[in-house]
Design a protein that fits this description.
With 388 residues, the chain is α/β, with parallel strands linked by helices. It is built from 9 helices and 17 strands. The protein has a 6-stranded mixed β-sheet, sandwiched between helices. It has a 4-stranded antiparallel β-sheet with strand order 11-13-9-14, covered by helices on one side. The chain starts with 5 loop residues before the first helix and ends in a 5-residue tail after the last helix. The chain binds zinc ion. Zinc ion binds next to helix 3. Zinc ion (ZN) binds next to helix 3.
Length: 388
């Protein structure tokens, strides 16, 4: 198996060393990248997401013309709280050809390879530009990349392709699900638990809503996936957290739960929330007969659009050539790809490491995956030098 370069390893060790859990600032990591690019004569621009705390970085190597390739990656990582790691999560540790550390697969490995290739990109004499787009706050709903894309649309000559380096084991992925997340809050009426008829039990109302979500989830599962490309092969619906009640002898006034739906591209994203809303309206009628101050409110907290497959798009054609592959895949996790696509940029996902290792304790990326990504980038350098 091919091994990745020492420079990639060193850069990955440095990137993993910054604890860029989404709740933290990413400014130190961005300053490190700016400094590195600067030392190779590349100017970069910060596009702030949260002034003084969170920023995105965009830089161009090569001529300032249309037809370039965007390499996009996020700088934040998911928390390690409560996870049992065999080594220090923010210190890269190599064991048996695997590089362990938070973000090694998702997705600092990709950024490390891209940075390690910068000297090569600079020396290549590119005829078409390579743009680097590093974003913040991806893991909390692809938030940071939104102002970055707006900036790119305004200020960059139109690129021909965007490659998102999320871990796909270097497979070219041209479709992913949309992810919508919601928070539902039930407001009941407190009462002594001996007088249940004087109160409105928010936890028990939430139970009815959860039962409806279970029914909807089962229905979506039965409906399946006509494209046959997704795993799981259906629009999935899931409740992640719930919180409610004060004590067992108090009829609870409040219950809140967070839930999500991951839609197959093209699915009606309004259907599941609309049907839960119908159920909520029926429950509210009974609640308000006891007290008019009760109610159920659902708000959408995050909306990450899906990536629609566009067969033969410039991004797909380029990435398949660079990956030396004929096949595209589809994934069930969200990326900023759908947002780039909405902005009119042809987009695919292709990056080193496996999503199976992401977000878990002992996250790792195989050195051979980083080597495969290096070979991909070497081919990109050559392709970007060819005259069209
Ligand atoms: Zn990611």
């Amino acid at each position: 198996m091919a091994d990745c370069s020492l420079l990639t390893r060193e850069l990955l060790a440095q990137l993993v060393g910054f604890d860029t859990t989404s709740r933290n600032s990413n400014l130190d990591l961005v300053a490190f990248i700016e400094d590195y690019l600067g030392r190779h004569g590349i100017a970069s621009t910060r596009v702030d997401h949260e002034a003084g705390r969170k920023t995105n970085l965009v830089a161009t190597i090569g001529p300032d013309i249309a037809g370039g390739t965007v390499l996009s990656g996020h700088t934040d990582v998911v928390p390690v709280d409560g996870q049992d790691w065999a080594s220090e999560p923010f210190m890269l540790d190599e064991r048996d050809g695997r590089l362990y550390g938070r973000g090694s697969a998702d997705m600092k490995g990709f950024i490390a390879v891209v940075l390690a290739m910068v000297p090569r990109f600079v020396a290549a004499g590119l005829k078409r530009p390579i743009h680097l787009a590093f974003s913040c706050d991806e893991e909390v709903g692809c938030l940071g990349v939104r102002p970055l894309i707006a900036h790119m649309v305004k200020s960059l000559p139109r690129p021909a392709a965007v490659i998102i380096g999320e871990p796909t084991s270097m497979q070219v992925v041209n479709a992913h699900k949309a992810v919508h997340t919601y928070e539902t809050e039930v407001t009941g009426l407190e009462a002594h638990s001996s007088n249940t008829h004087h109160g409105v039990n928010a936890v028990m109302v939430a139970g009815d809503l959860l039962a409806e979500i279970n029914r909807l989830a089962a229905e979506m599962r039965r409906r399946g996936d006509a494209t046959g490309r997704f795993d799981p092969p259906f629009t999935s619906v899931h409740v992640g957290t719930i919180e409610g009640g004060t004590a067992k002898n108090i009829v609870p006034r409040r219950c809140v739960f967070a839930w999500e739906a991951r839609f197959i591209p093209g699915a009606d994203t309004d259907e599941v929330p609309a049907r839960l809303e119908q159920k909520a309206a029926a429950l509210e009628a009974a609640m308000r007969a006891v007290s008019p101050d009760t109610g159920i409110a659902t708000r959408r907290t995050v909306e990450v659009p899906g990536l629609r497959p566009v067969e033969g798009s410039e991004a797909e054609t380029l990435a398949l050539t660079l990956a030396r592959s004929n096949d595209t895949g589809a994934v069930s996790y969200g990326t900023e790809g759908g947002l780039f696509q909405q902005a009119g940029y042809p987009t695919v996902v292709c990056g080193p490491g496996s999503i199976d290792q992401a977000h878990k304790p002992d996250e790792y990326v195989e050195a051979s995956q980083l080597a495969a990504c290096e070979a991909f980038m070497e081919r990109l350098a050559r392709a970007s030098c060819a005259t069209v």
